[in-house]
Write a structure and sequence with these properties.
Radius of gyration: 20 Å
Distance between the termini: 32 Å
Helix content: 25-40%
Largest sheet: 8 strands, mixed
Shape: globular
Length: 336
């Protein structure tokens, strides 16, 4: 796995946040879900104040209901809905060392989930490190694609974009025209500006990140030219979001551009894996012969999230290389 680039302090903490209530990372690891799956699995998106917290969970007071099912004015969060453990350490008395403690002095956004046996008045979050966002003085520590890749986003932008994404993933028809157009205005205001790296302009970088990730759900074929400067950008975070945005528009032009991105020798391998996954998402098997043509020269550079080996999310599954991702997709399609 590649190391993280040298970044300003404000960005470093967001890339590799390890929350205080995680178990000792060297012993307990898990496979962290992607944000899109977290949102699909959630039943409610809310903002809360934490009233009290202990090792068994925390009690929250509803501040804002933003999307999904309504919740009680007060409720408890008592566990995890998407925690796929890779390894687990236990205490001397045989209990798991995982705990769920939030800071009562902070405000949070939660993507709340429930299971069939979840008691009334109780909810779950996805994992100790995703399914929630912390509010700080400068904004929200926000996840749009994966908790390894977070952004610092103003509250109003976070609420509007995440609410629209939530509704789109649960029922596209529930997104009101005004809400859809508000999100699409981000494309005109942010994606018409030159791509910025975090070291050049952190605020614009984060806002463009939000716009690109929203494009994945709300972009249209006529919008595709807006992505070209971002697909050509040297920054790997920008490339990743641009490819994910491209993959969200299911059309022949998008597929041709994803294949072109895969053929390029100077593109980031993580972003190229996103291109492979984008073709899988669109599921047009007519591109299979072209994938086979790409396979012999596909990058074998090791890829992945990188980060701290002590991070409990180190168990997150990701293809070892672009070639491995291509081989897997080819096998899947040939087997069907």
């Amino acid at each position: 796995m590649r190391p993280l680039p040298c970044l300003p302090p404000a960005w470093i903490g967001l890339l590799t946040t390890i929350v205080s209530f995680c178990a000792p990372a060297s012993a307990t690891t898990w496979d962290e879900p992607w944000h899109e799956d977290v949102v699909r699995n959630a039943v409610s998106f809310v903002q809360v104040d934490v009233l009290e917290s202990d090792a068994e969970g925390f009690r929250a007071r509803l501040v804002k209901h933003l999307a999904g099912e309504t919740t009680p004015a007060e409720f408890r969060v008592t566990g995890f809905s998407m925690l796929r453990i890779g390894s687990m350490t236990m205490s001397a008395d045989g209990h798991s060392e995982l705990s769920l403690q939030f800071n009562p002095q902070l405000r949070y956004y939660l993507f709340l989930a429930r299971e069939a046996d979840t008691p009334p008045g109780e909810y779950l979050v996805a994992t100790p490190t995703t399914g929630w966002a912390k509010v700080v003085d400068d904004g929200v520590h926000a996840t749009y694609r994966h908790s390894y890749h977070q952004a610092l986003v103003p509250e109003d932008l976070y609420e509007a974009s995440q609410s629209a994404i939530f509704r789109h993933l649960h029922d596209p028809s529930s997104v009101e025209a005004q809400e859809r157009e508000a999100v699409r205005r981000l494309f005109a205001t942010l994606l018409t500006q030159e791509p910025r790296d975090v070291q050049e302009d952190a605020d614009l970088f984060f806002r463009q990140h939000v716009a690109l990730e929203c494009f994945r759900y709300f972009g249209e074929e006529d919008d595709l030219p807006l992505l070209e400067p971002f697909l050509a950008c040297s920054g790997w975070h920008v490339q990743i979001s641009a490819v994910r945005a491209l993959a969200g528009v299911d059309c022949e032009e998008s597929r041709a551009r994803l294949l072109e991105f895969l053929r390029a020798s100077d593109r980031d391998p993580f972003a190229q894996v996103m291109a492979v996954w984008g073709l899988r998402r669109q599921d047009d098997r007519s591109v299979l012969p072209r994938l086979k043509e790409l396979l012999p020269t596909a990058s074998e550079r090791e890829t992945g999230f990188g980060g701290n080996i002590m991070d409990p999310r180190i168990g997150t599954r990701f293809p070892d290389s672009v070639k491995v991702a291509l081989e897997k997709l080819i096998r899947e399609w040939e087997a069907d």
